[in-house]
Amino acid sequence: xxxxxxxxxxxxxxxxxxxxxxxxxxxxxxxxxxxxxxxxxxxxxxxxxxxxxxxxxxxxxxxxxxxxxxxxxxxxxxxxxxxxxxxxxxxxxxxxxxxxxxxxxxxxxxxxxxxxxxxxxxxxxxxxxxxxxxxxxxxxxxxxxxxxxxxxxxxxxxxxxxxxxxxxxxxxxxxxxxxxxxxxxxxxxxxxxxxxxxxxxxxxxxxxxxxxxxxxxxxxxxxxxxxxxxxxxxxxxxxxxxxxxxxxxxxxxxxxxxxxxxxxxxxxxxxxxxxxxxxxxxxxxxxxxxxxxxxxxxxxxxxxxxxxxxxxxxxxxxx
Length: 319
Hints:
It is a single chain. With 319 residues, this protein is of the alpha/beta class. It has two domains: 2-123 and 252-311, Periplasmic binding protein-like II (D-Maltodextrin-Binding Protein, domain 2), CATH 3.40.190; 130-249, Periplasmic binding protein-like II (D-Maltodextrin-Binding Protein, domain 2, 3-Layer(aba) Sandwich). The chain contains eleven helices and twelve strands. It has helices at residues 2-19, 53-71, 83-91, 102-111, 162-174, 179-182, 192-200, 225-231, 262-278, 280-287, 303-318; strands at residues 43-47, 75-79, 97-99, 116-123, 130-138, 153-156, 185-188, 206-211, 240-245, 249-250, 254-257, 293-296. The strands form two sheets. Strands 2-1-3-11-4-12 form a six-stranded mixed beta sheet, with helices on both faces. Helix 9 packs across helix 10 (280-287). It is globular. It starts with a helix and ends with a helix.
């Protein structure tokens, strides 16, 4: 805990300054507000380490600026090298906001059911309330199906990722392809972006990542990691092909500490919805693509993922 707190403090001292370099005009904000200073001196925004810290700061600079207006206190951005760092900091009371995948939230809930509360998730442009794990390989790899991957090298994104590990590992095993024996080797690449880059660089034969599953393939779908990489110029979709997709996965929640005032939760819901309606560029930056709406959500939406993660943990213990 102390080690994680020190890491957070070091990250904050750098990232808070860097975030100010991406100033955003929020003078027209007319969404809900509150005086959070009556309860705490700042708003701490945490983000998963799916891409570089600089990209995270740039994409979420507008959210930081709006949070300062909405809550009346300074806001700071924290990034972490992996999902576990964000989860540990939320559990330890060092964060006030984070957007987790379903499995990340499930991990927090199983550790401490009283720590956080889900307040929002995103709705896809089609109205779907979920997204997909997809498996990609290089277009010139000669790999066209799961059958072609037997004995090949394979990459996961992060052990706490829903689409980058939990769901594909479960679905592949259920289909008779136990990842531990089906692939010649597996690795955790340190996030979704790194996993796709490992495919492009030929370090692994295939890997999984997350996508909305709707929209144009050439654009990396409407949202998700592939869309982010295309927008940043890191990926040409002609260079990869998709050979597998999961079933629909519940969209991950934005969570806040349970012990924060209920009004703070309500302001976040209203603020995100106001941004979506009035500042579409900021909304798209923060959402990693196009969404139809930000929708209030509670724990019941994630019970199946919590059960799946719990079952996987228990199976591991039984080995």
